[in-house]
Amino acid sequence: MGFTLAEVLITLGIIGVVAAMTIPTLIAKYQERQTVSQLLKVYSTFASAYQMVQAEYGTIDTWGMTATDTGEVDEEGNKIYDHSAQKLFIERFKKYLKVSKQCEVGKVCFPGASYSLDGTLRSEANRVQTGKGDSPVEGKFILQDGTYVSLGWFTNKTGCLYVILPQGKDSVLGKNRFYFDFDSKGFFPRGMKDGHYSFEDFCNPEVNDITSGQGCTAWVIYNKNLDYLHCHDKLSWDGAHSCKEAE
């Protein structure tokens, strides 16, 4: 028995509605799996490079580095930063990485805007590198796979950096921008259970704060999901590690 044109159109309409409801979810899940895969690769690469750096030059606490924040200000009230430790570290660290582009003063390196996990705007798009501020231009570069790397503050014994994974036009903490910390003991994803940036306080999309999202890295690496985007209030290091587990 054949179908009337009306029946065919109704069927196509139902298929279209179902597709419109399910395809965005499938795409989002795929992107989250891609994020996990990319971040695991970055972590493996950086942890290995860091291990080789310390094997060659000694542990970072023996380098005689100075803190980035000098505690002083200039005549206009701007903070004065010491970039010597960052430059030394990046000189030694970069030779173990596959760098395709070095950021330059007077040029745009990462064209997108930057947001916290809760949607707070951190910086506008198309920022020109000035070579000033808390991170030198030498500490900003792009790897061959498209990952953007930016070095953060140093003390005389510790340091940090963040990466922006090659997906999307903007940088969003906890979605494609992730922080790592390092000291003499090794290279670690930020947001570990006993770390300074806790998962509960610094990986919560409901918390309205410019640092929201800085504590997500360890969760993604160890639990291999971004489920905090969907059911953060049901997750914890000592409890459920996924939305499915929390059901």
Task: Describe what this molecule looks like in 3D.
The model has no long low-confidence stretch (mean pLDDT 89). With 247 residues, the protein is an alpha+beta fold. The longest helix has 53 residues, at 5-57. Helices cover 33% and strands 19% of the residues. It has one domain. The strands form 3 sheets. It has a 6-stranded antiparallel beta sheet. Strand 4 and strand 5 form a beta hairpin.
Topology:
Layout: H1 5-57, E1 69-73, E2 79-81, H2 84-93, E3 99-102, E4 114-115, E5 121-123, E6 140-143, E7 148-154, E8 159-164, E9 171-172, E10 177-183, E11 186-189, H3 199-202, H4 217-223, H5 228-231, H6 243-246
Parallel strand pairs: 4-9
Antiparallel strand pairs: 1-2, 3-6, 4-5, 6-7, 7-8, 8-10, 10-11
